[in-house]
Amino acid sequence: MLVTSVGAETKLGNMLSRAQPSKMPPVEEQLRKLSTSTQIIGIVISIIIIVVSFLRFMVKKEYDNTGLPDFSGKSHTLKGLYEAIKRVALRPQGMLTMLASSLTLLLVGIAEGLPLAITIAITCWNKKCAIMFAQEPSTTATMASVTIICTDKMGGLTLIPQEVERCCIGGKDISEDSKISIHVLEAFWDGIGISSLIQENSRTSVDNSILSWAAEKWGLKMEIWKKRDSSIEFKQPTENENIVTALIGKDGGNGPRFLHCKGPATTILDSCSQFYDIEGNTRFMNTSKRKEIKGIIEQMHSKGLESVAFACKKVDDSKFDEGNLVMLGLLGLKKTSRQDTRTVIENFREAGIKVLIVSSEEVSTLKEIATSFGVIRPDADAWAIEGEVFRSISDKDRMDKADSIFVMGNSLPSDQLLLLSCLKDQGHTVAVVGNRTNDIPMLKAADVGLTFETGSTYIARKSADIVIKASNLTSISAIVKCGRCIYSNIRKFIQFQLPMTLAAGLVPLITNASYGSSPITTIQFHWAISVLTPLGGLALLMEPPGDMLMKKFAPGADKQLITKAMWVNIIIQTVYQTSLLATIQSKGPTMLGLSKEVTKTVMFNSFFLCQVFNKFNAREPEQINIFRGVRRSKWFWVGTVTALLLQATFLETAHAIAGDSKLTYTEWGMCLLVGIISWFIDLAGKCILLMIKKWVTKPAGSVVGDNRNLSSAVPEPTCNLELPQVMGKLDKVD
């Protein structure tokens, strides 16, 4: 009798049922709360405006007319209809102005502008960071909050000790600008692709390195390659066991068959009688060419590179031998320095991120690996624990010890899930690196599940949140930096957007309650928000990463998206804009000598320019120097200049169509001064906050608490963790 189990009754199904899936990413949850609060505020203010309007109407304080055009006794001409629409839309009066203001605030409150702009920016950043693929775009931003990275020894520590340094085809080095025949490339990809069919436990580090390089350089996706209409049959090499040989049949095996060989370069070269050049031509391997290629191989060996060659030839069913091959290409692989990995781990430590090694292997083996790569100190015996010991201790002891564990060996998947649960209960944001099927429960339960595109199983890639192309810790550090850049830019965007949204609600509320009308019309409010959100907000969201991002501790999942310093700046800017605009409406005609119509235009233009200048303040939410690195942010300047030009065009158009007042140079200067004052208001607020901080800060030498409570602390700088070459195109902030 044969007994099988399915679903949750299997071993894997049981583990998956025990794994608690991670809740909504911290950044996404905080943005959802902020968006909900903004909606509620907008709706509440709109309701208040309606109530005030109703009360004023009931006491007959004003509004003897509704503000609507009177058509009684008049002929309905096209011109009359145009004038009516213009009056309602562009120049509302009386009761109509309150209803329009209420509608404005209602739309501002309900609109999803905040999450939409951030989603667009995150998507753009994910495309810029081409070393990975995120299943959910917001997952990259969650990497900013990661405080612990759980991995085994295959998670970037020992998986890829080599990387491709040099590639030659036809004796010529291949660079980024090289144009290669598609015929040669497809044959080259076939030779590389056969490595992906080797069982994982038999695949060498060289195989994984080459697959990772092909995916990163040419975007070669093994899953797509495997699904091609080709039959593949591995052959046992006749002479050298270091050579991998496979027959690839085109058209499902009914077409021509090609023998592909991969192995040590000198061995493959001896079996080649021809070679491909980059144009796709097959050329005879004469003595001088063979000597030239052998010289390239010797150069690789002299520089410490391991050489691997690829060759192929067309064969028939009756004859199979490894001679008379056509050389496809030559690769030189260098060993990754252990010091490079130690540097990355040290930079993780500087950034407040702990690397934790968990595996089913012996504790002594894992501890040796952890010590050699700098994960733990050699004398840290208390920081290594066996899974059985961790499983057997009480819940209280587990919670006490979980935060101090750096290595857990001899552990079952259930032990690893138990440790992960304890870490998350302590407030950590945990990222898990897993490549095997047994790692799926951990990938599902983690805040962020990471896996490598090469060297991982298909189901592990489907279960992970982020699939990384390059199989090393450097790529993970680059993703962390990208996530922190996104998180930092989101904070900048919020500090820019919130004062504008709040002022857009409070100004109509105060002016309608006090004077019975709002000087800024519905169209003007929506114009300002529609122009400034994409041109100003997205410019802030796409700010390049700064050098200090990896020298600050992670914000952690329990930290608020809006800091106390940001709240101070937001409140100061909102109060300044609201009070100043209300003052201009009440005192403008007398103090400034402006007419009523000019005062309305000045108020609208001042509101717009306040947001433009506040964009500079938002670049540095907690720093006094708001101009640091601004000259290198070209999109910031493009957005600023474009917004000013569009505003000037809008005012001229409103003057021509709606009859709004045209501003003189003096009045424009007055509006610019109102915007510039926001810089000094921001400076004063930050200086006062800094003085208060110094006054309440404990004396030097006091004990500092948990790292997770020090999101704004900056440790002593060591080496600067840079993004890999794919992120090198981004300008760095001074």
Describe this structure in words.
The protein is an alpha/beta fold. The protein has 3 domains: 26-120 and 483-695, Calcium-transporting ATPase, transmembrane domain (Up-down Bundle), CATH 1.20.1110; 146-157 and 339-478, Rossmann fold (3-Layer(aba) Sandwich); 162-335, Calcium-transporting ATPase, cytoplasmic domain N. It is built from 24 helices and 17 strands. Strands 3, 4, 5, 6, 7, 8, 9, 10 and 11 form a 9-stranded mixed sheet that branches. Strands 1-17-16-15-2-12-14-13 form an 8-stranded mixed sheet, sandwiched between helices. Helix 2 runs antiparallel to helix 4 and helix 19 packs antiparallel against helix 22 (596-619). The longest helix has 43 residues, at 473-515. It is elongated, with a radius of gyration of 33 Å. The termini are far apart. The model is unreliable at 62-76, 84-90, 98-102, 108-113 and 700-734 (pLDDT under 50).
